[in-house]
Backbone:
C-alpha cells in the first residue's frame, strides 16, 4: 500500500514537473518569437543599409550624376546588384528625389515615395527606416551619395518588402514551435535518463565512498616528495600540495588556489603548455633560491586541453648524484683516452726496441712521462678542485689522441671557487668549449692544431679563455652559434655544446664573449661572478 501511494506521489510530481516545463517553454517560446521578429527585422534593415552603402560607394554611379541621363549608366548597374542581393528594390535618386533607377522601368524619372529621404539628403546620415512606397510597406536602408568635395548629390534606397519579411519570420516561428515540442520531449526523456543513470555517472559510488576517495587523493599528494601545482584553462591554480608550499616558501595559511599562476610563479611556462599542448620534461627553473627540475603535462578533457599539472623538486639530491656521476664520467674519459693513447705508444716503443733503437725508445718514454706528470703537478697546485682537474686531464689525453697540441697557460690559477658556485656548471662550460675547439682544428695539419686554455680567479670573477688555431666563426654565424641544434658541421647530433655552455653561464649569472684569436681561430671568454649579481656585462 505504501509503495502504491509512493508511486502515485512520484507520478503526480512528475506530471507537475512536466506541466511546469511546458508552461516555462510556452512563455520562453513567446518571448523568443517576439525577439526573433525584432532580430530578423533588424538584420534585414542592416542588410539593406549595407547594400545601400555598397551602391553609394561605386564611383561609376556618382560619376553618372554629371550626365544628362544618369539612368542609362545607373539602372543596369543597380539592377544587377538588386538581383544578386535579393533586394525588392534599389532606387537611386538625385537631391530632388527624382529616380535614376527602379525595378519598374516606367517609374524612372518620377519622385521617390515614402517621405523618409530628408535625413540622408539634408543631413547626410545613413539610416534604416520603414515606410510605404509604390511597391508597398518596406524596410529600407538609406545612404547619401556624395561627390569628391563631400557634398550630398543624391541618395540610395534599398528595400525589402515587409510582407516578405513576415513570411520569413513565420517560417522561423514554425520551426521554433517544432523545436520547443522536440526540446520538451527530449527534456522529459532526459530527466528520466538522468534520474536512472546518475549513479552510473559516478561509477556507482555512494557519497561516503566519494568522500573517501577525496581524502585518499589528498593523502597521496601530500606523501609525494615533489611539489605539485595544477591550473585550469584560465591559468588559475586549482591544486597545490604542501611540498609546493615549501619549495615556493609560502606560508601554509596562505591560500593560492584560485590565483593566477603568474602571481605565484612569474616565470612559469605552464601557460605555454596550455597554449601548445606540448609536455615539458626535466626542465630547469629557479624558484627563489632553489634550482628545480620541472615536468609540465597538459590535462585533456574530451580531447580538449582543460589545464596543466606541474611537478617540481629541488635539484639538491639530483645534483649530489650528478656530481658523483660527473666525476666518474671524467675519470672514465681519462682512462679511455689514456688506454687508447698509451696503446699506440706501447706499440711504437715495442717497434723501436725490436729495431734496437733503444735510445729513441727511452727518449719517447721520457717525453711522454714528463709531459703528463708536469701537467699533473701543475694542476695539483693551480687547480685543487678534483672535478675540474680531472676534466682538464681527460681533455689533455683526448687532445693527444686527436693529435692536437693542448696548452694550459702557465699563469692559470683556479684556487678560489666559492661554495655557492656549482662546479658541475663550470665542468659543462669548460668541457664543451674545449671539445668545440678540438673539433675546430681537426681539419688542419697535425702540426698546426693548437688549443690554448687560460683560467684565473683573481678578483671578483672566475674567467676562462679558450682559443684555437682553427678557421674561426664567420661573422654571419656569430649570433647563431649558441642556438640549440645549430652547427657549422654537417654531421647530425651536433649544435648542443655551445647551447649548453650559454645555458650554464646564464645560470651562474655570467656572460660569454667571442672574438678573434691570436692563433687565427676563435677565442671564447667566459666570465662568472664569484658573488651573484656582481658582474656587469660589457
Residues:
Amino acid at each position: 500500500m505504501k509503495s502504491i501511494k509512493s508511486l502515485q506521489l512520484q507520478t503526480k510530481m512528475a506530471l507537475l514537473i512536466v506541466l511546469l516545463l511546458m508552461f516555462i517553454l510556452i512563455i520562453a517560446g513567446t518571448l523568443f518569437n517576439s525577439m526573433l521578429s525584432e532580430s530578423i527585422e533588424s538584420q534585414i534593415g542592416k542588410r539593406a543599409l549595407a547594400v545601400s552603402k555598397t551602391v553609394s560607394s561605386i564611383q561609376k554611379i556618382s560619376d553618372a550624376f554629371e550626365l544628362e541621363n544618369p539612368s542609362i549608366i545607373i539602372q543596369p548597374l543597380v539592377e544587377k546588384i538588386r538581383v544578386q542581393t535579393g533586394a525588392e528594390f534599389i532606387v537611386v535618386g538625385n537631391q530632388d528625389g527624382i529616380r535614376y533607377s527602379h525595378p519598374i522601368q516606367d517609374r524612372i524619372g518620377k519622385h521617390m515615395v515614402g517621405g523618409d529621404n530628408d535625413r540622408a539628403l539634408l543631413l547626410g546620415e545613413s539610416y534604416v527606416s520603414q515606410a510605404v512606397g509604390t511597391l508597398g510597406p518596406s524596410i529600407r536602408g538609406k545612404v547619401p551619395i556624395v561627390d569628391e568635395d563631400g557634398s550630398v548629390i543624391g541618395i540610395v534606397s534599398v528595400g525589402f518588402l515587409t510582407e516578405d519579411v513576415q513570411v520569413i519570420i513565420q517560417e522561423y516561428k514554425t520551426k521554433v514551435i517544432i523545436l520547443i515540442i522536440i526540446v520538451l520531449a527530449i527534456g522529459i526523456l532526459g530527466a528520466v535518463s538522468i534520474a536512472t543513470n546518475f549513479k552510473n555517472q559516478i561509477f556507482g559510488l555512494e557519497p561516503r565512498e566519494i568522500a573517501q576517495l577525496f581524502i585518499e587523493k589528498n593523502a597521496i599528494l601530500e606523501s609525494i616528495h615533489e611539489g605539485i601545482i595544477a591550473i585550469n584553462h584560465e591559468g588559475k591554480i586549482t591544486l597545490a600540495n604542501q611540498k609546493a608550499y615549501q619549495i615556493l616558501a609560502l606560508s601554509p595559511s596562505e591560500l593560492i588556489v584560485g590565483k593566477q599562476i603568474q602571481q605565484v610563479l612569474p616565470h612559469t611556462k605552464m601557460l605555454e603548455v596550455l597554449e601548445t599542448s606540448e609536455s615539458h620534461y626535466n626542465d630547469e627553473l629557479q624558484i627563489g633560491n632553489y634550482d628545480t627540475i620541472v615536468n609540465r603535462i597538459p590535462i585533456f578533457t574530451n580531447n580538449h586541453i582543460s589545464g596543466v599539472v606541474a611537478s617540481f623538486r629541488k635539484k639538491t639530491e639530483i645534483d649530489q648524484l650528478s656530481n658523483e656521476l660527473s666525476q666518474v664520467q671524467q675519470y672514465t674519459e681519462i682512462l679511455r683516452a689514456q688506454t687508447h693513447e698509451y696503446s699506440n705508444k706501447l706499440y711504437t716503443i715495442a717497434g723501436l726496441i725490436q729495431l734496437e733503437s733503444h735510445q729513441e725508445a727511452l727518449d719517447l718514454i721520457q717525453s711522454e712521462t714528463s709531459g703528463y706528470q708536469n701537467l699533473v703537478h701543475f694542476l695539483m697546485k693551480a687547480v685543487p678542485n678534483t672535478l675540474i682537474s680531472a676534466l682538464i686531464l681527460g681533455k689533455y689525453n683526448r687532445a693527444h689522441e686527436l693529435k692536437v697540441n693542448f696548452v694550459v697557460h702557465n699563469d692559470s690559477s683556479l684556487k678560489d671557487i666559492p661554495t655557492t658556485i656549482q662546479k658541475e656548471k663550470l665542468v659543462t662550460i669548460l668541457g664543451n668549449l674545449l671539445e668545440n675547439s678540438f673539433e675546430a682544428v681537426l681539419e688542419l695539419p697535425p702540426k698546426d692544431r693548437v688549443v690554448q686554455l687560460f683560467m684565473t680567479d683573481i678578483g671578483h670573477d672566475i674567467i676562462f679563455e679558450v682559443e684555437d688555431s682553427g678557421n674561426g666563426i664567420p661573422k654571419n654565424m656569430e649570433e647563431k652559434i649558441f642556438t640549440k641544434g645549430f652547427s657549422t658541421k654537417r654531421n647530425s647530433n651536433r649544435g648542443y655544446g655551445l647551447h649548453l655552455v650559454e645555458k650554464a653561464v646564464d645560470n651562474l649569472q655570467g656572460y660569454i664573449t667571442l672574438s678573434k684569436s691570436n692563433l687565427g681561430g676563435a677565442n671564447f671568454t667566459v666570465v662568472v661572478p664569484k658573488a651573484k649579481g656582481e658582474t656587469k656585462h660589457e
Notes: The first strand starts at residue 89 and ends at 94. Residues 2-56 form the longest helix (55 residues). Residues 360 and 366 are 10 Å apart (CA to CA).
